[in-house]
What we know:
This protein is mainly alpha-helical and 188 residues long. It has ten helices and no strands.
Amino acid sequence: MNAAERLFLDQGVASTTIEQITAAAGVAKGSFYLHFSSKEDVVGGLRQRFVATLLDTIKAAVERRADGDWSGKLAAWATACGRGYAASARLHEIVFHDVPPPSLDGLADNILIDDLTRLLADGDQEEAWTIADARFTAVFLFNALHGVGLDAAQTGRLDVIEPRIVEHCFRLVGLPAPAVSAADDSGI
């Protein structure tokens, strides 16, 4: 998949052949077909890896926050998500837009939303904030973060957007605006 990713980033999916992928990976064409049925299958695998890698990055940022530091955890989650999308915008474009997933279900149901739902529900249970519906709030926040992260990649203005991302996340869960921006204090 690494070879395919590099080729897709360099040439695009449509211009990349299976022969180029197998040559770059140093495997026989038959080996390719043991794992994938098409280039679109490879894109699907890259899509799953993209989301899993982003989740790992987000979890690492959140885990660096102290137990009970719910505002810090939320700021770290939002900042890492925005940075992740901005840093990988071209790959995101390839795996989600050049070869779209079979449905748009991922905008309302994915492992990132599940993780954010847990964070929001746990913070609510610990009375760090009060939200009526953690899942709804997670879907709302995820889609907002997704959009502004990709916008930041296009504008090159992530440094300006990060504090605003955190401010809006805090506002949504009823926290006061942070005194220090998450970009400066997130440990990311």
